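Need residues for this backbone.
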């Protein structure tokens, strides 16, 4: 392997993915890129960083030439809730940006990881145990861009033999970075509020059931998929994966096991609730398990215990160190 390029490396997923990749492959082998400089000390100092706009195709190819990139993790995207308020920007970055990356990957014969989402499903999709191959008619711009991205990646694999691979990620929970505008971000915010104030007002219904995953599992899944034997992959792009399923109420009960005085209340945000209601209640990830051995390590209580412990440690750090 020559070099790995990560786009959107300052984002919620990209920042943790970059650090994990550097630990696995070596600091100098992973090129972090974003349209803004990272405030994260570890991310900024542990390896090479380039300012990169995914809408600038010439800039992409220049960076790839300089660093001799042969694998790309394309994490630059606008998320679901933000995408509804800025649909034009979401299309530009999520689709046109991906197209530019695909073209660069084709030109330089790179392998490519593309993160899709359960947001690629819609109200017509079977809501319980959603199959790997099923109807996809999302009603958000974010979901539309993810379906388009899945199809583009499949096209480039079939038309140009590009080694493109991807996951349909559920809601992700992380202690390392702040929420980034996703519909499932309540599942991160709730931990901060539980520790600081012992209470949280949730914008989704108490019984809103969604599949979720702890970030360490998600990062591991991305790396394992890209390392998987190509001949064993039937689907390649947009594998369903999941780790746990819960509602705001069941999450609050798990938190109460660690912080007994914690209380949750509800003030429903109709816009975000509508998005959540269009997604599956649960998904079937048997294709990922069968084709490349996917298996999560964290269940709800294990994730809750680790989140609270890690966040308490983070909150006790001096201000300049709290970016990680």
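Answer:
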């Amino acid at each position: 392997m020559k070099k790995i390029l990560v786009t959107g490396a300052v984002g919620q997923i990209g920042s943790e993915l970059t650090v994990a990749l550097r630990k696995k492959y070596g600091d100098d082998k992973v090129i972090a890129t974003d349209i803004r400089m990272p405030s994260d000390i570890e991310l900024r100092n542990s390896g090479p960083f380039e300012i990169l706009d995914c809408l600038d195709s010439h800039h992409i190819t220049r960076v790839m030439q300089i660093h001799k990139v042969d694998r790309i993790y394309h994490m630059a995207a606008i998320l679901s809730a933000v995408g509804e308020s800025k649909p034009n920007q979401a299309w530009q970055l999520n689709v046109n940006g991906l197209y530019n990356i695909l073209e660069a990957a084709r030109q330089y014969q790179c392998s490519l990881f593309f993160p899709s989402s359960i947001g690629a499903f819609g109200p017509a999709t079977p809501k319980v145990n959603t199959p790997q191959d099923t109807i996809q008619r999302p009603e958000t711009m974010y979901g539309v861009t993810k379906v388009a991205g899945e199809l583009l990646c499949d096209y480039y694999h079939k038309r140009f033999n590009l080694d493109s691979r991807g996951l349909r990620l559920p809601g992700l929970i992380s202690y390392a970075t702040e929420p980034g505008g996703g519909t499932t971000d309540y599942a991160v915010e709730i931990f901060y509020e539980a520790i600081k104030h012992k209470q949280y007002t949730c914008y989704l219904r108490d019984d809103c059931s969604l599949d979720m995953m702890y970030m360490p599992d998600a990062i591991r899944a991305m790396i394992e998929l890209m390392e998987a034997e190509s001949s064993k992959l039937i689907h390649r792009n947009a594998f369903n994966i999941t780790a746990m399923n819960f509602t705001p109420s069941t999450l609050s009960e798990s938190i109460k096991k660690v912080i007994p005085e914690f209380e949750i209340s509800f003030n429903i945000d109709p816009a975000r609730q509508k998005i959540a209601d269009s997604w599956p209640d649960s998904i079937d990830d048997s294709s990922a398990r069968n084709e490349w051995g996917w298996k999560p390590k964290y269940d709800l209580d294990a994730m809750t215990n680790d989140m609270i412990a890690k966040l308490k440690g983070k909150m006790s750090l001096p201000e300049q160190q709290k970016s990680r």
